[in-house]
Amino acid sequence: MITIGTRGSALALVQARLVAERLGSDVEIRVLRTAGDTSDRPIRELGDGVFVTAIEEALRAGEIDLAVHSLKDLPTEEPADLVIAAVPEREDPRDVLVTRSRQGLAGLPQGAVVGTSSPRRAAFLRALRDDAACREIRGNVDTRLRKVQSGEYDAVVVAAAGLRRLGIAFDEHEALPIDLCPPAAGQGALAVQIRAYNDELRARVVALDDPATRVAVTAERELLRLMGGTCEIPLGAIGRSQNGGVVLDAALAGDDGVRRASASGSDPYRVARRAADVLGAAAHV
Fold this sequence. Notes:
alpha/beta, D-Maltodextrin-Binding Protein, domain 2, 10 helices, 12 strands, 3 domains
């Protein structure tokens, strides 16, 4: 029996089941609580890895055999004793602006209060609408949407991937254009993590890996690592597989505007380095 460890949110359970269904019938799911689940403090105060550390410790201890994470939650410095054995095909990587009127950016009222705990989302939204006031928000996807409908917030920014996996519909006009609001590194992708020495399980899990997604998110995560490796950086990046290599488009928001970079090549690490060199002056790389 393979035991999959995951957080207990509705979205996390859906993601774990997606992996479990592809692995076969000899799989069970175990829910684990992380620091991010037990604290109401803003995510930025809790630090990177807040949603994964407890699950990784359970994996190391042999309490679970495999962990399913949202890839964007994983720190870019990967531990030597654990490995991302598979990155399945990516879901929609865009962000979605959900307003009370469901009219997207065009329907955002003047001086709107927008809920987001992401410095990246806040920075790119302000670049689009400098009158908007971004305010911290916590809770699962359903909770955040209810806070908009109740009037606590005028809008909230959430990941399209989460909405799609939960079966929550949105219109195309609600999705923020990816060139204007590029996603977090790895957004929309899952990470299937196992112990590095578990060769038998790795051989089974590797069938879930999507090479096109893997090369794209490798470039994105390497760029994030080079730029400081923290979710506090208002950095957006989107990679795509092309002609046997990868194309990486990235943007860094700052007080003086948005700095952009694009690079391509066969090696995702070198591609990320070229993008970082362009953006680096703004982040002291």
